[in-house]
Amino acid sequence: MELHHISQIEIRVKDLIPNAQYYAGTFSWSINAVSEDYATIDTGTAPIGGLLQVPPDSIPIGVSPYVLVADCQATYEKALSLGAQTCLPPMDIPGAGVYATVYDPGGTELSFWQGYQPMGDQFQGSGQNPFMWLEKPAPDLAATVGFYANLLQWNFTIAPGVDDFAFCDSADRAVGIGLVSGERGALLRGNTVYVRVTDCEATCARAQAAGGFVHVEPQASHSGTFAVIVDPSGNPLAITQPA
After folding, report:
1. Could you give the CA distance from residue 125 to residue 215 in angstroms, rounded to a whole number?
2. Are 215 and 229 in contact (CB under 8 A)?
3. What's the number of CA atoms in the CB half-sphere (13 Å) around residue 178?
4. What's the rounded Cα separation, in Å, for the pair 191 and 136?
5. At what angle do helices 200-209 and 16-27 cross, to 10 degrees?
6. pLDDT at 225 over 90
7. Residue 189's Cα: distance from chain center in Å?
8. CATH class of 6-115
């Protein structure tokens, strides 16, 4: 895993077991409970995922992408100096690493991870339904692009004739990043993670059978077919079937 790439997608849920069953049934992900309130997600390829059961009425559900960094404390302090707001200051997990979380200029979470050991690449999942895209609302697109360029050297491109969307993507990046402003950005509910699937309608059917529901029915997009499904805790996840 490369520095400054997304290394983990953590999903906060209300109840671990039903949500673990939901994601395993919907995506054929390998889910491994490592404690009463945490399970790892192995999609079969990087990045890894995690399910965190949060205490009721204290920590909201949601999705937090983790970025691999060399120095968590320094990255956290630099983020604050560039206009981020603190969420969780650097915290040590003995024997594992250090993590911290901030709110970026668009108001969405971004977490940093500094591991004490190199991240392994031994996966057991099917590899058929990987995390592949992250979209973040950016009310001030230029300011958010500048924030990430300075903090993580993410180089964004704005397509000609499109003034409300910037993207950061490359062949070596497992998860691309999009920043969305304007009317569409205002509709985003925090971080929106996309999963690539082979059959959008079949995935929606499995999500419903596993205890979730379909928020946006499958519809054509510029790159294929798109839908939004919601887990039993209320977390939306976008799915996309390439053309």
Report:
1. 26
2. yes
3. 17
4. 5
5. 150
6. yes
7. 12
8. alpha beta
Tell me the backbone φ, ψ of residue 228, rounded to 5 degrees: -130, 125
Q: The domain 131-242 belongs to what CATH superfamily?
A: 2,3-Dihydroxybiphenyl 1,2-Dioxygenase, domain 1 (3.10.180.10)
Tokens (6 digits) for 28? 């054929």
Q: Beta strand 131-137 with 176-180: parallel, antiparallel or unpaired? A: parallel
Each residue's pLDDT tens digit, 17-27: 999 999 999 99
- For the chain, the structural domain boundaries read 6-115, 131-242
- Tell me if domain 6-115 and domain 131-242 are identical in fold: yes
d(C-alpha 51, C-alpha 53), whole Å: 7
- 144-157 mean pLDDT: 96
Q: Of 58-62, 123-127, 178-182, 221-225, which one has max mean pLDDT?
A: 178-182
Query: Taking the complete model, does pTM exceed 0.85, yes or no?
Result: yes
DSSP one-letter string for the chain: --TTSEEEEEEEES-HHHHHHHHHHHH--EEEEEETTEEEEE-SSSSEEEEEEPPTTTS--EEEEEEE-S-HHHHHHHHHHTT-EEEEEEEEETTTEEEEEEE-TTS-EEEEEEESSPPP----S-SSS-EEEEEEE-SSHHHHHHHHHHHH----B--TT-SSEEEE--TT-SSEEEEE-HHHHHH--S-EEEEE-S-HHHHHHHHHHTT-EEEEEEEEETTEEEEEEE-TTS-EEEEEEE-
Q: How far apart are CA 223 and CA 110, in angstroms?
A: 27
Closest CA to 158 of 175, 171, 141, 170: 141
pLDDT of the residue at 71: 97
